[in-house]
Design brief:
Helix 1 packs parallel to helix 12. The chain has a 7-stranded parallel sheet. A 5-stranded parallel sheet has the order 2-1-3-4-5. By secondary structure, the protein is an alpha/beta fold. 34% of the residues lie in helices and 15% in strands. The model has no long low-confidence stretch (mean pLDDT 98). Bound molecules: (2R)-2,3-dihydroxypropanoic acid (DGY).
């Protein structure tokens, strides 16, 4: 029996690639060359499915150019804002993602960002590494602690809840806004805010966990930042385009906001250069899911979705527009 033919756009962990080759006629990217739109279309010829990542922009134009043989796009990510799911559906192409398996790793990075931002990690590390640390000083390099602070969670989904549970262990008080109020079991005592203005007003630290959608893009802007308390901290592990960079940089530079911890950016990896000049911006290069355990689990989940689909079963993680 012929095995389904899949194009894997990026190099994946070796165990994942081994399983891909065992179950599929898999075209791998051993050199991890960043594919272009043209190369994806060219390499998709004769394939039945694509295994893509967040670096592949699978928009309507690219979907229209794919060969008719492509029946499924499985993304190695929980987010699927890089795929035009409606355009895929219109061509009868299924789209799947990898929820759950990166929840813990991403929540850990959210806590790292909170700590790094609150405790001046950027300027302190630079002071030490550049030989400017002259002595311990009672008033030197003071930050603020998480304990006793109000954490506002924008989007209390899986990752938001995992972040909240870790933040509770730090003694934080949890507030949240989601499109709908959650059940008491899922809220676990978190205080619901019916709108973002109310949530922002109650957030010493605001952690962004909503998906990037037309409704959330640019949601952190001059107007909404004004609702945060003076000196508040913003943390983002979700998507860069939820933030208006100019507004956030201005608020950080002026001291209106105390700090930011950012793992995701508009136009990655070419982030707004203004962030690099800010000592109160603690920046990471999109590390949310970057552990071997998690990247293996994401790869296996992406393959399971393909395997189920080609067996004729509904994939576990079908997404809809
Ligand atoms: C995702 O899965 O959406 C992350 O951004 C990459 O792990």
């Amino acid at each position: 029996m012929t095995r389904p033919r899949i194009l894997v756009t990026r190099k994946l962990p070796s165990d994942v690639e081994a399983r891909a080759s065992a179950h599929f006629d898999a075209s791998l990217n051993g050199g991890d060359t960043l594919p272009t739109r043209e190369s994806i279309v060219a390499d998709a010829q004769g394939k039945d499915g694509l295994l893509v990542t967040v670096t592949d922009r699978i928009d309507a134009e690219l979907i229209a150019a794919l060969p008719a043989s492509i029946r499924i796009i499985s993304t190695f990510s929980v987010g699927y804002d890089h795929i035009d799911v409606a355009a895929a559906a219109a061509r009868g192409i299924a789209v799947t993602n990898t929820p759950d398996v990166l929840t813990d790793a991403t929540a850990e990075i959210a806590l790292l960002l909170m700590l790094g931002a609150a405790r001046n990690a950027t300027s302190s590390i630079a002071t030490l590494r550049e030989g400017r640390w002259k002595n311990w000083a009672p008033t030197g390099m003071l930050g603020t602690e998480l304990s006793g602070k109000r954490l506002g969670i924008l989007g209390l989904g899986r990752i938001g809840r995992a972040t909240a549970s870790r933040a509770r262990a730090f003694g934080m008080e949890i507030h949240y806004h989601s499109r709908q109020r959650l059940s008491p079991e899922l809220e676990e005592g978190a205080c619901y805010h019916a709108d973002t203005a109310s949530l922002f007003g109650a957030s010493d630290i605001l952690s962004i966990h909503c998906a990037s959608t037309p409704q959330t893009r640019g949601l952190i802007n001059r107007e909404t930042i004004a609702n945060l308390p003076e000196g508040a901290i913003i943390v983002n592990t979700a998507r860069g385009d939820i933030v208006d960079d100019d507004a956030l940089i201005e608020a950080l530079a002026s001291g209106r906001l105390g700090a930011a911890g950012l793992d995701v950016f508009n136009n990655e990896p070419n982030l707004h250069p203004g962030y690099l000049n800010l000592s109160n911006a603690f920046l990471l290069p999109h590390l949310g899911s970057a552990t071997l355990e998690t990247r293996n689990a994401m790869g296996f989940r992406a393959l399971e979705n393909l395997e189920a689909f080609f067996r004729g079963n509904p994939p576990r993680d079908l997404v809809s527009a």
